[in-house]
């Protein structure tokens, strides 16, 4: 998953441990510097290729998740190509991460490959390091989109996998025909 020599920061290790201990199913990573929602894979299948579409087996679901955020964001959903993030207008404000730029060690890829958690990366604003007085506006631009995204946790199949006595089965593998990515049950 990580390239040779890649150092994992202590806080990243802590989040990885946390994700493995609790059965999260949906998350988002918030960044600054652009207005777009990206989804896995962030690392290209061919590391030497830049801007190479690199879909997961759950490509359609990731597009639905990313669009749920983008469509509820007042600026990302704005059809003007003359604004920050305007180069993503024709894509609906979303893009496969590796198609934008490929990098190794992203949390969205880790979550998809090593947990049951689907994560998108949200670039919440045009400035990488916004000033304090800009944060209130950024919050309001992203609040409804965050809520809309969180409601997506109710999409898909949910329930309890149990034995014939009604006892939950831990780590049962669940497969969906046509999607080559299994998930496992929690505790």
TrEMBL record:
Cofactor: Zn(2+)
Record's GO cellular component terms: extracellular space
UniProt superkingdom: Eukaryota
PROSITE patterns: CARBOXYPEPT_ZN_2, PEPTIDASE_M14
Pfam families linked to this entry: Peptidase_M14 (PF00246)
Residues at the catalytic site: 123 (proton donor/acceptor)
Keyword terms of this UniProt record: Carboxypeptidase, Glycoprotein, Hydrolase, Metal-binding, Metalloprotease, Protease, Zinc
A GO molecular-function annotation: metallocarboxypeptidase activity
Swiss-Prot/TrEMBL GO biological process terms: peptide metabolic process; protein processing
Location of the Peptidase M14 domain: 1-153
Family listed: Belongs to the peptidase M14 family.
PANTHER family assigned: CARBOXYPEPTIDASE Z, PROTEASE M14 CARBOXYPEPTIDASE
Protein name (Swiss-Prot/TrEMBL): CBPZ Carboxypeptidase
